[in-house]
Write a structure and sequence with these properties.
The termini are far apart. The protein has 113 residues and is mainly β. Helix content is 7%, strand content 29%. The strands form 2 sheets. It has a 3-stranded antiparallel β-sheet with strand order 3-4-5, with no helix packed on it. Strands 1-2 form a two-stranded antiparallel ribbon.
Amino acid sequence: MPILDDTTALRPQRAKRHSPDTQRTYSIAPTAPAPLLTAGELIALLQNADPAAPVVIRGQYGGFDCVHAVAPQPLRLNVNSHDGFGPHDLPDDGEPADIVAVAIECGNARVAG
């Protein structure tokens, strides 16, 4: 079960599909391919973090959002092309996923302190 809500009404038109075995990267810009961070790489990066430190993700327009869930997420790669939407999306019913990613769900919860 995906941790992210399926907002079908807000889904953009999908771009052409690519073969899952050839899509290991995505592009932020046409000239700047960026590799997908693997779970193992993330674990290695977190090895030196203070275990009591909160986990946050930078907001789209500034600030930081709190992470409140992590779970497996089947995804289709490079299927969104509209501004404001991530390049990857949930598979349609009956459609196979290209990968199962580790999804991090965020919210803008206030933290006491």
